[in-house]
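Note to self: user wants both folds in one dump. Writing first protein now.
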Amino acid sequence: FAVMGAAFARTVLGLDRSKVALLNIGEEDLKGTHELKAASAMLKAATDLPLAFTGFIEGHKISSGEADVIVTDGFSGNIALKTAEGTAK
């Protein structure tokens, strides 16, 4: 999903090397689920991808501009989206 998000940012937003982060409960490498830690390790190791992996990002920084693409699972992403929608109202 990180690669797909970066491709979208490149094609639609014109960002050659988008900043990609994983949504997590903290920015430290020791926090998060096994799946998040594994995804982080894969993205760190994949240095040939056309994206800049910035690590983990917390929910309160979603709109900070620190990342162009934020990757998460469907459950957490839906919560984040609904929270943003409710706050905007």
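First done. Writing the second protein, which came from a different request thread.
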Amino acid sequence: MKKIQAVVPSARLEKAFAALRELNLGGLTYYDSKGRGQAPRPEIHSGRGTGTFRPEFNVNATIEIVTHDSMVNKVIDKILESSSTGLAGEGKIFVSDIDDVIDIGSRQRGEDAL
């Protein structure tokens, strides 16, 4: 089993969800995140014309999926298709090994718990 953690711009989150829905995954988790990478941070104008500023961090979303080894490349391809425009700083995808999974409700373990 593998855990795929993808950090994508928040603006592309709905496209990523739609693409991943096509794979009929058991589920996923996402949360809002902030980070600083190569992408330029947007300039924000204050409400009364007193100036502009650039926030220190970009607003992103992190998607976490645990899946069977056979699905890893399909999941990665869907995330890339839906989130990438080819510019630097659009996020990262991390893949890790998962030793075990336990479903709290059914108490199933391993790949059956996915």
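Dump finished. Worth passing along: Strands lie at 2-9, 29-35, 44-45, 52-53, 58-67, 92-97.
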